[in-house]
Amino acid sequence: MELPLSDDKLVADCRKEFETAQSKGHTDSAEASIRYCWALVHSPNQDRVWQGLAFAEALLGGPGMTEHNNKEVIYLSSVAKYKLGKHVDARRQVQELLKVSPGMRQAQNLNDLLEATLAKEALIGVGIGAGLLGVAALVVAGLARR
């Protein structure tokens, strides 16, 4: 599974929509905020992903945010953490979300992606450890022959 990507135009459009909703006090400003957050965390630009993570954290529990909105923002925060390499934090957060919303398909897909990523990282770690152990054994064997 691949996560969708946003582009510069989408980020700019969502930012404009967010700023307009904020300035006019629209009742849909929470939705505009979530769309802007989505565009940021799905950006290929790491700085924007960091901005999206900070924005998501600022949105949580804020004015006008419903329980559903907060769940979406938690999911977006998890996506940002995944994209920033904070896989363990992302998995913990998405698993907490799945406890309260087990039917949230996008969260389940992200959890599956995180599990696969963490399993791959663990295998790489084991391989590196085995390689280092092999090198150490060769060094010890070489020293023992002297």
TrEMBL record:
**What species was this sequence derived from?**
Symbiochloris irregularis
Which key words tag this protein in UniProt?
A: Membrane, Transmembrane, Transmembrane helix
Would the keyword 4Fe-4S turn up in this protein's UniProt record?
Answer: no
Q: Does the keyword Transmembrane apply?
A: yes
Protein name as annotated: Mitochondrial fission 1 protein
Taxonomy, top ranks, is: Eukaryota, Viridiplantae, Chlorophyta, core chlorophytes, Trebouxiophyceae
The membrane-spanning stretches of this chain are 122-144
Any single GO CC term annotated in Swiss-Prot or TrEMBL for this entry: peroxisomal membrane
Q: Which GO terms describe its biological process?
A: autophagy of mitochondrion; mitochondrial fission; peroxisome fission
Q: Name one Pfam family in it.
A: Fis1_TPR_C
Q: Which InterPro entries match?
A: Fis1, Fis1_TPR_C, TPR-like_helical_dom_sf
